[in-house]
Amino acid sequence: MQTASLRWHLFCRVIDNFGDIGVCWRLAQQLQQVHGQQISLWVDDLASFAALEPGVNPALPQQQVQGIAVYRWDEDFSLPADEPEVVVETFACELPPRYLHFMQQLTQRRGQQPVWINLEYLSAEDWVRSCHGSPSPVHGMNKTFFFPGFTEGTGGLLFDAGLPALAQELASAEARTAELALYGVHNIADNTRLISLFAYENPALPHLLEQLKQGPQPVCLLIPQGRISAGVEAWLQQPLPVGQPQQRGALTLCTLPFLSQPQYDRLLALCDLNCVRGEESFVRAQMLGKPMLWHIYQQEEDAHLVKLEAFMALYLQAAAPELRESLLPLFRGWNQPGLPMPDLQPLLAAPQGWQQHASEWQQGLLQLGDLAANLVQQVVNRV
Amino acid sequence: MKTAQEFRAGSVMSLQGQPWIVLKAEFNKSGRNASVMKMKLKNLLTGATQEPVFKADDKFDQVILERRQVTYSYFQDPLYVFMDEEYNPVEVEKENLGDVLNFIEDGMTDVCEATFYEGKAISVELPTTIVRTVSYTEPAVRGDTSGKVMKLAKLNNGYELSVAAFVEIGDAIEIDTRTGEFKGRAKN
């Protein structure tokens, strides 16, 4: 689809991890690289951004990164020099009052407001479809709610065209060996299961590690540095520095440095099972067609558990009964302290069923189109 | 100012300078500490409806509407004129009366409730149950008193509705104004 090149202003507030900026940066890149849009991105935490994208200099208030204008969003927010056709506030972040005033003036002068989008959080709940694309008349202008989702009637998921093929690229034994060598992991037997571990602090972690240690299946756990790292080291009762793997029974543990987005994609594509968290890594694992275990972001009043159940209902809708009976308690045990953490070994010993299901789930998601393309279409329909 | 999540069905919010009554309000947690409100709104001035979504903490003015009891007096095209308890005329535009028009007729004595926005009457509500006289209907079906078989009946103002088969011309009938449906023969 060839679309006019419009000026987009994207706003991102980093709350407490890398998901917000991770999603925004991928979206900005796709809009610019795939759809030819002109993108300006305001981010309130350039240090987090720089961890994901080494091309970002956290000291600069304004810079060009891969053809995208990046601005530090600080207290002294200054008005942009260019006038946008599209404004996107991501994850319910509030636009600065000065910017709202700027939009109102722009609307009066042009006689037409910029297309104003509120890009919301991802949820599998039913109500999302009734809210996706709905108008929101505020501040004398109209905003549109845009919800990512897993079903028709939502905005779909954020993925790039090359992502589904990455798993194929890293499927051979040679590619696997070469990729593991990058992390200082050598001499891994062919039947070793590779698992990536990215999660929030999780009380179920020791149960998982004990299982893997005592199991018959050799497992290599690849752990990008993050919030789960302290839990791993506590279980090990010793530090686990980058590049110095440790062996415990059938389990090899290896800390990886914090990875850029392209590097993390390769890790997910390499592994047989990915423990993912939040929204961004969760989506990437699904779009790679890989088995994954989701650690959902905890919310007040246990709202996250409702969202987990809504996702599981969709994810397992077409799954074989035995797979459903294995996965549902596994996901619940990983997310709900107090529930038992079921044994992962049967799934690791016979991963074909889960892999097949993950591939079929991925194919269904691909049918929805990618979020960036769906968003561009929504904007084009309104300009 | 009230946040979107503080509005309930029945409350009236000021949106784009106009009063909108909340017909439905659904609260959902979207993520982290964010929530959204899906609403169904009806514009009290135009009758237009819309189904917007708001962030739960978006702020709006609440509109407190004045209400007064009125009785119907006369029609002066295009206004329907009611009288309040102090015999002040209250004029309501035809398009703001909606389904109430079906039951307005000369000489009606129902005590209605008028709603005012910035001093102007914008709607009138009838009592939940009203009594009207049937001006024409086909003859009653002999022996059927169950009320399950229905037929059409015309009121004095020409409005037609379904009534039980036993209803006859000149009968006073009760009507539920929420649904516009026949309830039964009026008790004397």
UniProtKB/TrEMBL annotation, chain A:
One of its GO terms (molecular function) is protein-arginine rhamnosyltransferase activity. Keywords: Elongation factor, Glycosyltransferase, Protein biosynthesis, Transferase. Signal peptide: none annotated. It catalyses: dTDP-beta-L-rhamnose + L-arginyl-[protein] = N(omega)-(alpha-L-rhamnosyl)-L-arginyl-[protein] + dTDP + H(+). Coiled coil: none annotated. Belongs to the glycosyltransferase 104 family. Protein-arginine rhamnosyltransferase that catalyzes the transfer of a single rhamnose to elongation factor P (EF-P) on 'Lys-32', a modification required for EF-P-dependent rescue of polyproline stalled ribosomes. NCBIfam families: efp_Arg_rhamno. This is Protein-arginine rhamnosyltransferase. It comes from Venatoribacter cucullus. The gene is earP.
Automatic annotation (TrEMBL), chain B:
InterPro entries: Elong-fact-P_C, NA-bd_OB-fold, Rib_uL2_dom2, Transl_elong_fac_P/YeiP, Transl_elong_KOW-like, Transl_elong_P/YeiP_cen, Transl_elongation_fac_P, Translation_prot_SH3-like_sf. Pathway: Protein biosynthesis; polypeptide chain elongation. One of its GO terms (biological process) is peptide biosynthetic process. Keywords: Cytoplasm, Elongation factor, Protein biosynthesis. It is found in: Cytoplasm. Gene3D superfamilies: 2.30.30.30, Nucleic acid-binding proteins (2.40.50.140). One of its GO terms (cellular component) is cytosol. One of its GO terms (molecular function) is translation elongation factor activity. Belongs to the elongation factor P family. HAMAP family: EF_P (MF_00141). Involved in peptide bond synthesis. Stimulates efficient translation and peptide-bond synthesis on native or reconstituted 70S ribosomes in vitro. Probably functions indirectly by altering the affinity of the ribosome for aminoacyl-tRNA, thus increasing their reactivity as acceptors for peptidyl transferase. This is Elongation factor P.
